[in-house]
Task: structure prediction
Amino acid sequence: MTAPEADLTGWGATPFTGGGYTHDVYQRGEGPGVILIPEIPGIHPGVLGLGNHLVDNGFTVAMPSLFGEPGKAIAPGYTASTITRACIAKEFAAFATNKERPVALFLRALARDLNARTPGPGVGVIGMCFTGGFALAAAVDDAVLAPVLSQPSVPFPVTPAQRRDPGLSDAEMKIVVRRAEKDGLCAIGLRFTGDKAVPGERFATLRQRLGDAFEVIEIDSSPGNEHGFARMAHSVLTDQVRERDGHPAYEARKRVVEFLTTRLSG
Result:
């Protein structure tokens, strides 16, 4: 059994401008809005498989193409070249700590636009891998009610400060904390326990700042783990999913859908 994959069939693309940046946004579905931010190297077949799953569960899904070639399959050279370009882009500030990233301005504008066009009290945002932390940065805007941080790996954890950094500026974090305390904002974070790209210190920071408003889903990927996850297991919601009951990544995906449904039901 392999992870669910799909192609671009049924997805329509429209350019969207926000925060001084323009990206094509692929959209499909009906119902409450969910922004699905692709992981490196872009809107690959696994991301499209997740997008279709969300559509099948009653959401309007908007996927901004921030990097890569939409629909192109993952390959080592393609992934490496995409990472290289993303790392030097000012829009993402891949190594900076305590940083408000320009891409967050784009995502907040997209969230407001999607919220205005879809039913429900607000929208969800799922970030993954390179874009994982962007979901929480988007939640500075009141339109975002359900941020999901799947294996958030920016800033890249080279130094102790980068390992602890939550992926957004302290000013942004204070707004998110205030929303959690006063408005009931909640977030989910997902990671594999052995994933060095997503250090436990980062989740500890998020839990310290957000308390019970930050739900943590950690999947055991230690040597000899029960479900046979490899030491390099990383993408919780895409390539590690096997659609059978009891599989930890499958159960994590179900929990994310439940979270989005509850938060966006009004």
Summary: The longest strand covers residues 21-28.
